[in-house]
């Protein structure tokens, strides 16, 4: 769905169909346990598992998780290396279960910077689940919202250079078809754990009209109850999408 298409469908007012989560707080969680940061990342994998199960059971159609930003390369080399190895192990350990439960896995971001070993795991995991039609699980890895928009702009610029597109033909709709997740419903709800109130270069284009829910809960402690709280908060919002009339369930009836 393009960005200017109306997102106000009957289905969406009943609950979020696309939820995105900024999974923050792994390092602080580990520090509170007196352990190294990598232990927090490992504990965070369990929260991912819980969140996927919750999304499936609540009929959410797409779940996008911010796993590794393009800025995370600036972290200590030992932590980055541990994260990469954890990513490989998580793919190996979880993809069969995802496939069994009809979940389609997609990795969004500039994966070209990853090792050939990790790129191969990503390719195999996506290929195994590509025909599943249940929940779409998007993992944002080496992803940045600015990078995403720039890739779209470059694609359109190449088309202009080739003479197949005129600059005046470039529209918001056209650019929206070049960014990640364009084939999915718009992001309805963004959840950020860990107590911070910022978007950290996450899905800058896609969350223009999203609702936001911030919680102090650190990601390893994010559970079904916390997720339910976010959905309950979403249900109380008056979504206007730039207009003046709130869109809610009673309006849709």
TrEMBL record:
* Gene source species: Obesumbacterium proteus ATCC 12841
Q: Which domain of life is it from?
A: Bacteria
Assigned EC number: 2.5.1.31
Q: What is the official name of this protein in its record? A: Ditrans,polycis-undecaprenyl-diphosphate synthase ((2E,6E)-farnesyl-diphosphate specific)
**Gene this protein is translated from:** uppS
On cofactor binding, the record's note says: Binds 2 magnesium ions per subunit.
Query: Looking at the UniProt record for this protein, which Gene Ontology cellular component terms does it annotate, in alphabetical order?
Result: cytosol
Keyword Cell wall biogenesis/degradation assigned to the entry: answer is: yes
InterPro entries in the cross-refs: UPP_synth-like, UPP_synth-like_CS, UPP_synth-like_sf
In its UniProt record, a GO molecular function of this protein is:
ditrans,polycis-undecaprenyl-diphosphate synthase [(2E,6E)-farnesyl-diphosphate specific] activity
């Amino acid at each position: 769905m393009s960005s200017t298409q109306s997102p106000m469908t009957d289905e969406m007012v009943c609950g979020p169909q696309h939820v995105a989560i900024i999974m923050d707080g792994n390092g602080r969680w580990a520090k509170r346990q007196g352990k190294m940061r990598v232990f927090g990342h490992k504990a965070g994998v369990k929260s991912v598992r819980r969140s996927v199960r919750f999304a499936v059971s609540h009929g959410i159609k797409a779940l996008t998780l911010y796993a590794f930003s393009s800025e995370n390369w600036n972290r200590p080399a030992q932590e980055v290396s541990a994260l990469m190895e954890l990513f490989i192990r998580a793919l190996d350990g979880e993809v069969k279960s995802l496939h069994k439960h009809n979940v389609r896995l997609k990795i969004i971001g500039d994966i070209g910077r990853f090792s050939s070993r990790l790129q191969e795991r990503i390719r195999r995991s996506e290929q195994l689940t590509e025909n599943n039609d249940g929940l779409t699980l998007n993992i944002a890895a080496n992803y940045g919202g600015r990078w995403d928009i720039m890739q779209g702009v470059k694609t359109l610029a190449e088309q202009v250079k080739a003479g197949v597109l005129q600059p005046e033909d470039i529209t918001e709709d056209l650019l929206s078809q070049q960014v990640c997740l364009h084939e999915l419903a718009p992001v309805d709800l963004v959840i950020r754990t860990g107590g911070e109130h910022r978007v950290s270069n996450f899905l800058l284009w896609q969350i223009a009209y999203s609702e936001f829910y911030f919680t102090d809960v650190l990601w390893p402690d994010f559970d079904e109850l916390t997720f339910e709280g976010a959905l309950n908060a979403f249900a109380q919002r008056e979504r206007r999408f730039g207009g003046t009339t709130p869109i809610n369930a009673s309006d849709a009836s």
